[in-house]
Amino acid sequence: MPATGGAAGARAGIGFDLDRAWQLHPQVSVRPERFGALLYHFGTRRLSFLKSPALLTVVRSLADAPSARAACEAAGVTEAELPPYAAALRTLAASQMIRAREDQ
Amino acid sequence: MTLPLVEQFQYGLDAPICLTWELTYACNLSCVHCLSSSGRRDPRELTTGQCRAVIDELDRMQVFYVNIGGGEPTVRPDFWDLVDYATAHHVGVKFSTNGVKITPETARRLAASDYVDVQVSLDGATAEVNDAVRGPGSHATALRAMANLAAAGFRGFKISVVVTRHNAGQLDEFKAIADRFGAQLRLTRLRPSGRGAGVWDELHPTAAQQRQLYDWLVARGEQVLTGDSFFHLAAYGEALPGLNLCGAGRVVCLIDPVGDVYACPFAIHDSFLAGNVRGPGGFAAVWRDSELFARLRRPQAGGTCRACSAYDSCRGGCMAAKFFTGLPLDGPDPECVKGHGQRALSAAAGAPWPRPFGDHSHRSRPVPVSIGRRRPPDRACDENPLAGFTNKKQPPKEHAAWRDE
Amino acid sequence: MSERVATADITEADQAAEPEPAEADLLVEEVSIDGMCGVY
After folding, report:
1. Nearest by Cα to B147 from B138, B157, B137
2. Fewer Cβ close by (within 10 Å): the C or N end of chain C?
């Protein structure tokens, strides 16, 4: 059973399941900035700095995309560029900024 | 390749991430080190309507949360309404209090709200140490508030301590108090701001205590909060959790009770005044267009600190600490861990420190004459109501300034 | 199912072949809301 299946990539160091459907946590406020964006989780009181406008596009489109991989592709992220985006999404999942969608 | 955050901020954010809002200069206490020299209400305080207008702006600007303080913010009759208004308008609230109005009833109300956090001030694990700084009965008031919050089921409220020479040996006891009430401990730095200027020499931790504090904090990681107030200690080695940079005018600022906007609450002085929220463009215009903030957001010259191997870690330390001890802003922090600040202070001994600005202290003693003098040592006309008293002596009992409302 | 396994394998293989992004390349930095100096 792949390690990324059950926990949907929420555990650090395991990897991130790009092929699952994800969404922003409903308690997260997104504020676009010149360098990318600020994300604030009203429940955990944690702040995330997204240091890439493309990553902001990915995060915002997660809820409407069939998978994180599709969201990255739609945002113009190439296959070669995927690893840092996967790492970023893994960090966001670990801090509950994003969570897996249950609609699959 | 993305820039480190520190360099991202030089281009300015469209809004602060969070900010401090001092709602009133009125206070039932007269803490000796009060950064805002609070005590008496200022007649020009923002009205309820003006406060709501500020909250509307913070909502539009998507300021995530506001730390409401003072003075003692809960003494404003509209305090609870304003907190509700803020949380109803997508602005999270944490308020700092000495606990005077945290009754079982208000504690229950607070425990029921998801978007309000409470921070109770405490500067001594024992009444002896605490009350020497905050006044007789203040320790009891704070602990009663904590008990009420805990009993109401409010988990994770903050207990905020200003670290001084006299409480630096009580860190474990502070942690025990926090654990007892299910609260989170927060240790913050004493700055020579407001009334703090007059007691800084005798109250700021020694170099040895500063090192012990650093080691204690590193060992506890994110368990103990610091408000990023010890970023100058990053020069010791491993940085403490936080952004580790001066946020003044870049990611945070202060709105004071009369609507003046300062770079940070530790820098209440004409030199750090950016504007007023009652101007034509409101708070947003001040944040975006003030000349002071534009200057702060430009890359700072390292000055004499540039040559130091630790500069990248400490970034020259706290602007307010340097300013109020009369040190140049492009030089070392007065508490520079390498001792450069201490040497600079000694070299400048006798030179005048900036005069306190906007003193709202209770008028229980004569207003001091402060032309060109260096502060401290304390003397009869010192503005500090506890001048001459250490934690070993008893302060006067029925002092008007310390009567609870 | 096997497709999912293959995907996971590729991800893990990628991670083995390419080192974790250097800190300067991290696209996300996190901090507690208390982690900003100038707020009391």
Report:
1. B157
2. N
Asked if B238 reaches chain A (Cβ–Cβ under 8 Å), the answer is: no
Provide the pairing of β-strand A98-100 with B184-189: unpaired
Choose from B17, B60, B186 for mutation: most chain A CBs within 10 A.
B17
Confidence of residue B356 (pLDDT cuts 50, 70, 90): confident
The DSSP letter of residue B365 is S
**Angle formed at CA B255 by CA B373 and CA B158, multiple of 5 degrees:** 95
pLDDT reported for residue B350: 84
Residue of A nearest to C29 (CA): A49
Dist CA A65 CA A74 (whole Å): 9
Beta-carbon contacts of A59 under 8 Å, excluding residues fewer than 6 positions away, are A24, A30, A37, A39, A50, A92, A98
CB proximity list for B365: less than 8 A, separation 6 or greater: B381, B383, B385
Residues of chain A with Cβ-Cβ distance to C15 below 8 Å are: 15, 83
Helix (H) or strand (E) holding B184: strand B184-189
Which residues of chain A are at the C interface, by a Cβ-Cβ cutoff of 8 Å?
Answer: 2-5, 15-19, 36, 40, 45-52, 55, 83-88, 91-92, 95
Other beta carbons less than 10 A from residue B333's beta carbon: 25
A99: left (phi over 0), alpha (psi -120 to 50) or beta: beta
Q: Of the segments A10-19, A25-34, B292-301, B356-365, which one has the largest average pLDDT value?
A: A25-34
Q: Which residue has the tokens 């936080």?
A: B242
Q: Please give, rounded to a whole number of angstroms, the shortest distance from the CA of B388 to a CA of chain C.
A: 28
Residue owning tokens 């709501």: B52
Residue B387's pLDDT is what? Answer: 43
Q: What is the ipTM of this complex?
A: 0.84
The answer to whether B90 faces chain A, any CB pair under 8 Å, is yes
The 10s digit of each residue's pLDDT in B197-226 is: 999 999 999 999 999 999 999 999 999 999
Inter-chain touch B3–A51, beta carbons under 8 Å = yes
| 8 Å CB contact between A61 and A98 | no
Q: Do C37 and B1 touch (CB under 8 A)?
A: no
Q: CB within 8 A of B340, min separation 6: which ones?
A: B304, B305, B308, B331, B332
Tell me which residue in C5, C18, C32 faces A45 most closely, judged by beta carbons.
C32
Radius of gyration (C-alpha) of chain A in whole angstroms: 13
- Closest residue in A to B251 (Cα–Cα): A38
